[in-house]
Fold:
Amino acid sequence: MNIIWQYLDKRSAAVNALKDYSSMEYIISHTDEEIKNAYDKMSGIQSPQFDGMPRVHNPQAGEARILNGIEEIDVLKERYRQALEYMEWFKPAWEQLTDDEHYVLETFYIDEDGQTGAVYDICDHFHIERSSAYNKKNRAVQHLAVLLFGK
Structure:
């Protein structure tokens, strides 16, 4: 499936794509490590658990562990593929934005301050009033939406 289909409403989709940016970066930078850990779990031997509960011997436990590991690796690889597709689609639009638009969008949507704190940060940074900060944010979102989806 094409990555664009996840973001159909252009304005809210641009905001959602912006919010997904940091998680996609995380996926791309940590997938190799997670795949390595999955391989290690597949090949390792589990130690017995002494919790007082009776256990039934499962002769296929090793096979089940390997199958679960293969399934986990497949999920990780698919997630990585989708993150690369997302970055290929989002990154060119993000790079075309101005530094001021980057600041406004990062402050308003990516930082964890909350929207009220973000508005005050934008007001302080640009020395403008709140309504102008909201207008600046709306123009930046609109510009990002046009870059991502066209008119």
Notes: The helical segments are 10-43, 61-96, 99-110, 115-126, 130-149. The mean pLDDT is 85. The chain has one domain: 8-149.
